[in-house]
Amino acid sequence: MDLEAAKEDLNIRTLGPIGYDFGRLVYLSSLRDHSSGEYHHHGLARSFSHSVASIALEECHRDVFYQLIQSPLAKLVNEVERFVRSSGHDFDRTVRVWENLEAYRTMIPSACDELTAALFRSNVMVAIALLRSRQTNPQGKAQRASQLLLPGL
């Protein structure tokens, strides 16, 4: 019961306002300690308990990840682009850093099978490559990465 209440609280108060799955995935993965694999969220732990909060975060992380992995590639490209643009940093530099550091690898849930993890890494690499290869159309207007991927969007 507490676990479901904790997940509902997390979804309503924290994840809902983020507004898109890739942003939620970045946020949730940032709450995981990379040494222990445990998740930490002070407010959620205060309202429930540390163990319930950690499990709720882990389950929500897994749920958002699998929602995103099952989405069309064009959606992922749009969401990666949205995240990069919302960072407040130079777009091209941010894309280069993501390409070089491969920080998206830390977004994969711990219990994810290797094939699904490889698919996620590949999809994000494609999204980043598309963002990097933005071109100017004949009218001189920059195209969104999803337009390069799937003309007509």
Task: Give a verbal description of the structure.
- The chain folds into two domains: 2-69, no CATH class; 73-149.
- α2 runs antiparallel to α4 and α6 packs antiparallel against α7.
- The chain is an all-alpha fold and 153 residues long.
- Helices cover 67% and strands 0% of the residues.
- The longest helix has 20 residues, at 50-69.
Report on the biggest sheet. Answer: none
Count of separate DSSP helical elements: 8
Look at the structure and give the mean pLDDT: 89
Order of helices and strands: HHHHHHHH
- β-strand amount: under 5%
Form type: globular
Key structural traits:
153 residues; mainly alpha; 2 domains; globular
Can you describe this structure in just a few lines?
With 153 residues, the protein is an all-alpha fold.
Topology overview:
Elements (H helix, E strand, L loop, with lengths): L1 H17 L2 H10 L11 H6 L2 H20 L3 H14 L4 H11 L12 H19 L12 H5 L4
Helix pairs in contact: 1-4, 2-4, 5-7, 6-7
